Amino acid sequence: MVKIYSWNVNSLRNVEDKFLKFLEDYTPDIVFIQELRANQNQLSFFLQNAVGYKCVFSSAEKHGYAGTALYYRDTLNITDLKTNIEGTILGMDGRFISFTLDATFYAGFYIPNGNMSEERQQIKFKYLNQVTELALRKREEGLEVVLVGDFNIAVDPRDLYAPNLNVNHSGFLPEERQWSETLLNSGFCDAFRLFEARGGFYTWWNLIDPTRQNNKGWRFDYFFISNGLKNICVSSKILKEVFGSDHCPISLELEYKK
């Protein structure tokens, strides 16, 4: 069994104690982090040396902005670890980490937000298209694929509190949902939807509701898995009970055959 988690922590330094407790309580094999918001030398000894884990940090040039990280069990034999793909914008602002394990290509993303400007929205579209190109290329190479992270999109009306009020807003634009539909029609599935068809399950809430009781949220964080992994996917969950960020972690469990 491989237990994979993803969490937009909205600054790893700010959530240090909660993150280290999360590692202790949930014993993940792999954790993808978004919004690292730090350079490695700004992180504490404990974040850089979590017991039982190796870690990789990919930072933005702009201080305190974006970035991703990866924690994985020091017993895992991961290969082809990368924080950028030549000829793409995937590694911009430290938004990308990938590796291969058990004939499966794993890629973690922090997709750009398109809210700031039309130019930024176009960068988001370009980034999303390159995610798809990478995923399909890896499938052509014979690998199964796990795409994970904060995609800054709610892929269908079940995935946000007020879909009718957001049809013209970045994160729920028709073109963004078309991107996800195209991906899902190209041999991928939304792992969470293998286990839960209802709406009302979100991964991001405005901090004006710190306890998430009103549940007026968006589901921005996903595991998209190639269809060949469906038969070994035994769990995919949203950990609403884990606090520390405006996002909560999500999980995926894969039971590889011996």
Separation of the first and last Cα atoms = 10 Å
**Principal-axes shape call:** globular
Order of helices and strands: EHEHEEEEEHEHEEEEEE
- Oligomeric state: single chain
The CATH H-level homologous superfamily: Endonuclease/exonuclease/phosphatase
CATH C-level name: Alpha Beta
Strand order of the largest sheet: 3-4-2-1-14-13
Overall pLDDT score = 96
Main β-sheet, in a few words?
6 strands, mixed
* CATH fold topology: Deoxyribonuclease I, Chain A
Tally of separate domains: 1
Residue share in β-strands: 25-35%
Q: What would you say the CATH architecture is?
A: 4-Layer Sandwich
Q: Which structural class fits the helix and strand makeup?
A: alpha+beta
Taking Cα atoms only, what radius of gyration do you get, to the nearest Å?
17 Å
How large is the count of helical segments?
4
